[in-house]
Design a protein that fits this description.
Length: about 250
């Protein structure tokens, strides 16, 4: 066996009728014996430990649960243990019945690809009834206190209208959606008015600062002007005229 250079190269197959030398032998992970290519599987060399780590599961026809068979135990004993301890026939309908869309008169079965959970009511629906108005959703969750304080202007009026129209009955889903929409529109309009008022105040303040910021001063009378051109016009009309009049009176004398 082997060669002079590699005396330990290759091993004989452990099967008695084979004993073939294989230079790339296989070692069984159950019985730890060496086999050739033809006898490497558990079935080919009749491995006594080949089925100890196999997993076999039988579905119970009564409760639709999986029953794992123990290789070291009789399957009939394993089945009797399951029936006496873990078997629950009421679970059969839950496990085998397919889930459907909860909308009345909708027969669509909910699968992995056509199921959408509503963000407001947390209930699974089909694609056709995924929106709130389509499955009579009770409406979105209650908004945060900061959002309520921001919407207090518009929501108060909508609440009064809802109380006067339906004092004894609970508001429907459509009325809740309309109230939410009206309150949002009122809050947006209020925000727009505040922004426009701030813009008008800033423009008026900038205009007043521009009118009061006269930096050009007349050196003769101390009057203030907003530009040099206005100052020159003032000097020519007022002071030059006064100089000419006083110069003429001096020549007469």
């Amino acid at each position: 066996m082997g060669t002079p250079e590699f005396p330990d190269l290759g091993k004989h197959c452990s099967v008695d009728i084979c004993k073939q030398i294989d230079f790339l032998p296989f070692t069984c992970d159950r019985c730890l014996q060496v086999f050739c290519l033809d006898h490497r599987s558990y079935m080919k060399h009749s491995c006594p430990k080949g089925d100890r780590e196999d997993v076999t599961v039988v579905i119970c026809p009564l409760c639709a649960k999986g029953v794992r068979l123990n290789p070291n135990e009789d399957p009939n004993i394993t089945w009797e243990k399951h029936v006496n301890t873990d078997c629950d026939p009421s679970n059969y309908e839950k496990a085998t019945k397919k889930k459907k869309c909860p909308v009345p008169r909708c027969k669509e079965q909910l699968t992995f690809s056509n199921t959408i959970k509503c963000r407001d009511c947390n209930v699974d629906h089909c694609l056709k009834h995924r929106f709130g108005p389509d499955h009579t959703c009770p409406g979105p969750r209650k908004p945060e206190p900061s959002f309520l304080s921001f919407m207090s202007g518009g929501s108060s009026s909508s609440k009064k209208e809802a109380k006067t129209t339906r004092p004894n009955n609970k508001p429907s889903s459509s009325s809740r959606w309309s109230n939410l929409l009206s309150s949002a529109e009122a809050g947006i309009s209020k925000l727009g008015n505040d922004i426009s008022n701030k813009l008008q105040f800033s423009s008026s303040s900038s205009g007043s600062s521009g009118n009061g910021g006269m930096v050009e001063v007349c050196p003769q009378c101390g009057a203030r002007f907003s530009s040099v051109a206005v100052l020159v016009e003032h000097v020519e009309k007022t002071h030059e005229r006064n100089k000419k009049q006083s110069h003429g009176k001096s020549h007469k004398y």
